[in-house]
Amino acid sequence: MNSLQRRTARLIVAYEGTAFHGFAPNPDVPTVDAALREALEKIAQVPVELVAAGRTDAGVHARGQVVSVELPSRLKLESLPSKLNSLCGPNIAVRDVQWVDSSFHARFSAIWRHYRYTILNSPTPDPFSATTAWHVRHPLDLRPMQLACDAVIGSRDFSAFCRKPARGDDDNDKSVSMTRYVMRATWSRIDDRFVFEIRANAFCHQMVRSLVGTFTDIGLGKRPPSDMMSLIRSGRRQDASTLAPPHGLCLWEVGYPGSVE
Predict the structure, then answer these.
(1) CA angle, 170 then 173 then 176, to 5°
(2) Rounded to whole angstroms, how far apart are CA atoms 110 and 254?
(3) Which of 20, 27, 9 lies closest to 94 in space, CA to CA?
(4) Of the listed 33, 57, 192, 227, which one is catalytic?
């Protein structure tokens, strides 16, 4: 292969999203795409285009965002993470880089995405988690939140929890249907942290934050657990609770064929 030939690389990227207006490119504001692409182009000395598994919004974080990119085959990938991290850190960290088959596409090859949402449930805020957890000071009851999870598991129409996208704006870019298949949805508590884990084949815009807002009202006793199924059946977005803020949300992991469950 000559130095002008390219191969497909897969990057696993973590970032603290506070300073960015989401992942997707936007010429008017700082984005994760812009910062990472600028660093890659500086190292590779060629223009590159990134494809991300999830289009995280402004203020949303990632631990396991997956990015595919065509890079010159001459690049030595073993040294690429350290070079990228010296240019992008500490807000962006490239955790791993591998050559993959040319058919790999970070977005369309994904079979599931896993998000985690963290709530700090304490009378006083914690400055050290102010950008990564939603502070809810009134006590939450974990049990009804756990009971409400059953309603969202399986193939469901999440119209009540999603902003209707323009065509081509959802994760799989196939339709504007709000039906998604949720494989896992759980709430757990560790000390003063309530953690929501959800895994699905795809997510529509604002789905996780809208679900968390409704779950939180259930935990506060403002609505019963049965409201979750009622909302799914009605599809009425105006009946769902207020969106949870973005900074508690993190794209935790993305699965591909052969991924370990």
Answers:
(1) 60
(2) 7
(3) 9
(4) 57
| Residues 24, 226: Cα–Cα separation, whole Å | 36
Q: How many residues are present in the chain?
A: 261
Using DSSP's 3-state secondary structure scheme, residue 64 falls into strand
CA distances from 190 to 17, 18, 121, 125, 195 (A): 23, 24, 10, 16, 8
Taking only the tens place, the pLDDT of each residue in 80-117 is 999 999 999 899 999 999 999 999 999 999 999 999 99
Catalytic-residue membership of 33: no
Q: Which parts of the chain are beta strand (E)?
A: 6-15, 50-52, 61-72, 92-100, 112-121, 134-136, 154-157, 179-190, 193-200, 249-255
pTM, to two decimals: 0.92
The 10s digit of each residue's pLDDT in 190-209 is: 999 999 999 999 999 999 99
Q: Are strands 154-157 and 179-190 parallel, antiparallel or unpaired?
A: antiparallel
**Helix 227-234 to helix 207-219 angle, to the nearest 10 degrees?**
150
- Delineate the domains of the chain, giving CATH numbers in brackets: 6-100 (3.30.70.580), 112-255 (3.30.70.660)
Q: Give the whole-angstrom CA distance, residue 136 versus residue 245.
A: 11
Write the single-letter amino acid at 129: S
Give dist(CA 215, CA 230) in Å, integer: 13
